[in-house]
Amino acid sequence: MDHLLTALKALADETRFKLIQLLLTQDLCGKALAHRLGISEAAVSQHLKVLKEAGLVDGGKRGYWTHYSVEKQQLEDIIGELKRMARQLASSSYHCPRTRPVNKGLKGKEIKIMCCGPCCERPVKLQEKPEKCSPEQIKEFHGDVTKHPCEGEKKEGK
């Protein structure tokens, strides 16, 4: 998991993403990459360092220059892991996405987005008020908590 996070962080930068796109077309040296991206060779070097540490790029000497290439197997592994996570998400049981952030209302006042309106009332089992949920229902839809997480709070807009 740490490797996946490192790779995704490396790819999250626009310049590094462009470097990967260029290197997928052909192996290039730092000078050529800098010229194509319109940035300094030093900047390219720093970005390549991050990509190499993430295992996404490798460099090999060709005469005087070092040419860089994409570690395609690493990209395929990342894609595979993301697909696995997507399948796991699709097959997992329903859980309340309670951890949504606080939003600002029209007048700039902070309002909490409640989970009971949009998500908990969908399952037939939880159409009652939070106070009427059984411990089994709470555990099934909210995980290991002692009481319903929405208990005592008002729904947005009501």
Characteristics of this structure?
48% helix, three-stranded antiparallel sheet, mainly alpha, single chain, Arc Repressor Mutant, subunit A, 158 residues, 2 domains, two-stranded antiparallel sheet, 5 strands
Number-wise, the strands total 5
The arrangement of helices and strands along the chain is HHEHHEEHEEHH
Count of individual helical segments: 7
SS-based class: mainly alpha
Shape annotation: elongated
Estimate the mean pLDDT confidence: 77
CATH superfamily of the largest domain: Winged helix-like DNA-binding domain superfamily/Winged helix DNA-binding domain
Rg from C-alpha positions?
A: 24 Å
Tally the structural domains.
2
CATH T-level topology of the largest domain: Arc Repressor Mutant, subunit A
How much strand?
A: 5-15%
Intertermini distance: 41 Å
Which strand order do you get reading across the main beta sheet?
1-3-2
Instruction: Please give the CATH architecture of the largest domain.
Output: Orthogonal Bundle
Q: Characterize the biggest β-sheet.
A: 3 strands, antiparallel
Point out poorly predicted stretches. Answer: 153-158
Q: What would CATH call the class of the largest domain?
A: Mainly Alpha
Helix content: 40-55%
Can you tell me about this structure?
This protein has 158 residues and is mainly alpha-helical. The protein has 2 domains: 2-74, Arc Repressor Mutant, subunit A (Orthogonal Bundle), CATH 1.10.10; 95-153, no CATH class. The chain contains 7 helices and 5 strands; from the N terminus they run H-H-E-H-H-E-E-H-E-E-H-H. The chain has helices at 2-11, 14-25, 30-37, 41-53, 72-91, 116-120, 135-142, and strands at residues 28-29, 57-62, 65-70, 103-104, 110-111. The strands form 2 sheets. A 3-stranded antiparallel β-sheet has the order 1-3-2. Strands 4-5 form a two-stranded antiparallel sheet. A hairpin with a 5-residue loop joins strand 4 and strand 5 (110-111). Helix 3 packs across helix 4 (41-53). The longest helix has 20 residues, at 72-91. The chain is elongated.
